Amino acid sequence: MRPTTEWDSLPRFIVGDAPDDRTFVLHLHWPRFLAEVYEDDSCVLGKPLWIDEPEGMSETDLAKLMREADDFYTAEADRE
Asked: What pTM was estimated for this model as a whole?
């Protein structure tokens, strides 16, 4: 089930740091998910932990969403 409109007023993505030096990207619009960032020569997002089941989304749409999350993190990392 899609969250209420209040969720849509939040930013689409945010970056969060955990106390153990891990970094995550959180997608706050439907379907919400959390993905860990793995960095070496490039940024790679781990498999998403779905908060909302992405029912009805195609594999193509899910792959696009993950690319957008990766692009968001890369842009945020470049700003620092």
From this structure: 0.83
